[in-house]
Amino acid sequence: MHDEALNRWQRGWSASRGWTDFQCIDDVTVVRIGEPERRVEYVATEQHATAAAHLALTDCNPPGTSWLTIAAGAADRVAADLRPFEIVRTEWLMTVRLADQVSYPVPPPYSLELSATPSVVEAQVYEYGEIAATGRMAILHTGAVADMIQTDPAHRRRGLARAVMTALGHAARCRSATTAYLAASPDGRRLYKCLGWTTLTPLVVARTSLTSSR
Ligand SMILES: CC(C)(COP(=O)(O)OP(=O)(O)OC[C@H]1O[C@@H](n2cnc3c(N)ncnc32)[C@H](O)[C@@H]1OP(=O)(O)O)[C@@H](O)C(=O)NCCC(=O)NCCS
Asked: Is pTM beyond 0.70 here?
């Protein structure tokens, strides 16, 4: 379930972060991130959670640095099944047809600037030269993936994140993207719902335990 959406999200997320080294092993996408705290990410649907867990428990990475993202309809059950792991958080895989995303302007006195590489568009919202909100969208063919949407705490609930999403969605449509995906935090989920996004599945995010020996 949601294999294609998960796959498209992972590819866009990896493009946004500059993680180019990934491959599929036993229906699990292995993203070699290479950061000290997050060496590798195993991305899989619920039915392949066991294979992902096996890969994480048998790789050579230090404890706590192998991560899992599992698309799990029954998030509680999957979290219980992943007992040897530390459950970090639950996110939600969401999607929208870009033509259906609700549009909002940038509220005064803020201004928004866009910059782009061949596959990633970045938005920055400024107030008198200071950054108040940022976000980016990776665009791969007809799919787009929003990532790192954030508003400085001092500027929240003023409509900045929805203006960022509007600008990113418009830029993605101009590049022929039709459908967008993202992994939402609890706060983000409320924002995206108000923009017309729908939830496909919870995502359980876990990592190998720092304490238990493998
Ligand atoms: C989520 C986040 C980006 C929202 O930024 P923001 O600029 O405050 O969002 P907006 O003002 O554009 O909110 C638009 C609408 O989204 C909803 N919304 C946003 N944040 C909300 C919250 N914390 N609680 C409830 N609803 C919320 C509301 O409907 C809001 O409209 P309203 O203020 O008129 O009620 C911001 O809280 C943040 O940076 N959080 C930490 C990082 C994070 O979780 N990012 C999302 C990653 S997926």
From this structure: yes
